[in-house]
Design a protein that fits this description.
six-stranded mixed beta sheet, alpha/beta, single chain, 272 residues, Rossmann fold
């Protein structure tokens, strides 16, 4: 079972702009936890704080008993937090297998000299890593394209490769930033199934930022909703869907009021 990830009282500022404002939530072990909100709500800032790319002005981020707040990104990755980015950042000229092998670097014990000289221990370790890479590629549906150049893959397969590369770090918890963005409907649901498989088959917790609300509502166990860097609602998909604060954030106060009036039961007596 993975550890809980706790964001507590986090505030993030850029000059006079407060990107996150006293934000707190907990990702329970073994769950798919979605972070949603309108554009500019602070979703990517939340991921950047968790992964160490931004340093909060106040608050803390803990993974189990480990305080991540002051850690550099590479140390946070070593703690077991993997991340797949919204903007695909693969080496287009390298093969699928080479892109995935790069992610195994933090797990490699053989030193540079042993690897360069091709010593038996280094060769044995490389075989183990390559076998694991093949397993992960099969898991995400890229097993038949290991030797293809990443740049030649279809967009959906490149998104899968981005997820596979994060999985190759052997994370306990996986941060997925809009994994279904830009995909046609059938591919979005393939990715949704993959996210559920990450949780169910690999036992990895998932924190998901995603704009496709049908996908989020179908796969998330718990949802945190942000607006202007503040937590405005959290709970199950059913609880979040019925929250007036969420409706207002997404539709605007006027639209939310109009929707409430339209859907409210009539109290006017009907003529007999």
């Amino acid at each position: 079972m993975t550890r809980a990830l706790t964001v507590e009282g986090v505030t993030l500022q850029f000059g006079g702009i407060r990107a996150l404002d006293d934000l707190s939530f907990t990702v329970e072990p073994g769950t798919v936890h979605a972070v949603i909100g309108p554009n500019g709500a602070g979703k990517s800032s939340t991921f950047n704080v968790i992964s160490g790319h931004y340093r909060p002005a106040a608050g803390s981020i803990r993974f189990g008993d480990t305080d991540l707040t002051e850690m550099a990104p590479h140390r946070i990755a070593r703690e077991g937090i993997g991340r797949a980015f919204q903007n695909i950042a693969l080496s287009g000229h390298a093969t699928v297998v080479d892109n995935l092998m790069v992610a195994r670097h933090r797990l490699t014990r053989a030193g540079f000299l042993a690897t360069a000289l091709g010593l038996p221990g280094a060769r044995r370790e490389e075989r183990i890593h390559r076998e694991r890479v093949r397993e992960i590629a099969d898991f995400v549906g890229l097993g038949g394209q290991l030797n293809a150049s990443a740049g030649t893959l279809a967009y959906g397969d490149r998104k899968r490769l981005e997820i596979a590369r994060a999985l190759c770090t052997e994370p306990e918890i996986l941060l997925l930033d809009e994994p279904a963005a830009g995909m046609p409907a059938f591919e979005k649901w393939d990715v949704a199934s993959l996210v559920l498989s990450v949780r169910e088959s690999l036992g990895i917790s998932v924190v998901l930022v995603e704009h496709d609300m049908p996908v989020v509502m179908a796969i998330a166990d718990h949802i945190t909703v942000l607006d202007f860097g503040r937590l405005i609602a959290e709970g199950t998909p059913e609880e979040v869907q019925s929250s007036e604060a969420v409706i207002a954030a997404y539709l605007g106060e006027t639209a939310a009021h109009d929707q409430a009036v339209t859907t409210a039961p009539s109290t006017t007596p009907t003529a007999c």
